[in-house]
Specification:
There is one protein chain. The chain is mainly alpha-helical. The chain contains one helix and no strands. The chain has one helix spanning 21-48. The longest helix has 28 residues, at 21-48. The chain is elongated, with a radius of gyration of 20 Å. The termini are far apart. The model has no long low-confidence stretch (mean pLDDT 87). Keywords: Membrane, Transmembrane, Transmembrane helix. The chain crosses the membrane at residues 26-44.
């Protein structure tokens, strides 16, 4: 019995869609905030030990 396809492959012209400026800004802010919070967590854990 063949496995059911969970997703249909996209047509060739729909494989890549350019991100909108708001999406790019959101990704940048999310990455920046994640890195800053990770640095704060590392500094806090070093100061407590």
């Amino acid at each position: 019995m063949p496995e059911p396809a969970l997703q249909k492959p996209l047509p060739e012209e729909e494989q890549y869609v350019e991100l909108m400026p708001a999406e790019k800004k959101l990704i940048g802010w999310s990455l920046g905030l994640g890195i800053v919070l990770l640095a704060i967590l590392i500094l806090a854990s070093r100061s407590l030990s």
